[in-house]
Amino acid sequence: MDKAYGISRREWMAAGVCAGTLASWCDGGSAGAKMQKLKGEDMANLTPYLLFEGNCQQAMEFYEGCFGGDLRIMKVKDSPAKEWMAAAQQDKVINAQLRSERIDISASDWLRPDRTPVRGNTVCLYLSGGTLAELKALFEKLSQGAEVTDPLKEMFFGSYGALNDRFGVRWMFQTNEKA
Fold first, then answer.
1. How far apart are CA 65 and CA 164, in angstroms?
2. Please, are residues 164 and 170 in contact by the beta-carbon 8 Å criterion?
3. Which residue in 63, 73, 89, 153 has the most C-beta neighbors within 10 A?
4. What pLDDT, on a 0 to 100 scale, did the predictor assign at position 48?
5. Which pLDDT belongs to residue 119?
6. Alpha helices per DSSP H over 41-151
7. What strands, in cross-sheet order, belong to the sheet with 49-52?
8. For residues 160 and 158, what is the distance between their CA atoms, to the nearest angstrom?
9. What is this structure's pTM?
10. 69 to each of 39, 48, 135, 179, how far by Cα in Å?
11. What is the mean pLDDT of the chain?
């Protein structure tokens, strides 16, 4: 990265991630109040952040089709980062967020050309609670093109299943209801 602005690419990306994290915490206006009570439904939400290899928009649109919610996608070329990013990066997603009352997922494309991403299940998304019917419906939607590693079935603690979706993301499903 050009040092004309006095910061390195690493410092700039770290600042962006911190700013994005801060914005997501502050977006609701009551994040500080929620942090005062750390029990039950008053706990802060955990938001997974997913990194994709050029197919972030397709992945997030797929998840929007499964869960609904409000999907916001910003590409590099539409962000303040466009001045610092190479031409090959301009059509990549710098930030995407799918948010609803019950879902909050953030993601971006891999934007570090100086490093090679390591494919793997570094993030596992865990869907728990709800009804068995709701869980089955979500499992079926996410199973499209997926590797189902554990079919949804009754276990001693309720019902459980797991899969790696068509984008390589690991999902686990659990409800206390039995089939």
1. 17
2. yes
3. 63
4. 86
5. 63
6. 56-67, 132-142
7. 49-52, 104-109, 93-99, 70-75
8. 7
9. 0.63
10. 25, 16, 17, 28
11. 75
pLDDT averaged per 10 residues, the chain (length 179): 36 38 32 36 56 93 96 96 92 94 89 74 74 91 95 91 89 86
Tokens of 13: 């990306």
Beta bridge partners of 35: none
Residue 120, classed as helix, strand or coil, is coil
Q: Residues 74, 75, 77, CA angle at the centre, nearest 5°?
A: 125
Alpha helices by DSSP H, the chain: 9-26, 31-36, 56-67, 132-142
Q: Determine contact, residues 10/96, Cβ cutoff 8 Å.
A: no
Q: Give the fold, CATH level 3, of 124-175.
A: 3.30.720
Q: What is the pLDDT of residue 30?
A: 33
Q: 109: closest CA among 75, 80, 142, 82?
A: 75
Question: In the 8-state DSSP scheme, what is residue 25?
Answer: H
Structure tokens at 143: 């199973």
CA 14, 20, 23 angle in degrees (round to 5)? 140
